[in-house]
């Protein structure tokens, strides 16, 4: 989220260029994740979409393969949240209440 909020530095520049970030063993030794930013109105960062997985030898590549789909999902959610009216909140609530794996 720091990269999306404008943090300076080489790592953050790379994250912004990619539009996502994969971590392995950063928060916990046995975990990995990929995250993409979610924006609200006026391009303010409101959160992130993240997928977590157990860390193993191939997890970084596996998570990176999910980046295009995760980015599309974040872009769609960001578009919904960028509206200032209540209908956007209703659309997100409706999607959440009907979604299932």
TrEMBL record:
InterPro entries registered for this protein in UniProt: GAF-like_dom_sf, Tscrpt_reg_IclR_C
Domain IclR-ED: 1-83
PROSITE patterns listed in its UniProt record: ICLR_ED (PS51078)
Identification of the protein by name: IclR family transcriptional regulator C-terminal domain-containing protein
Organism listed in the record: Variovorax humicola
Lineage, highest ranks first: Bacteria, Pseudomonadati, Pseudomonadota, Betaproteobacteria, Burkholderiales
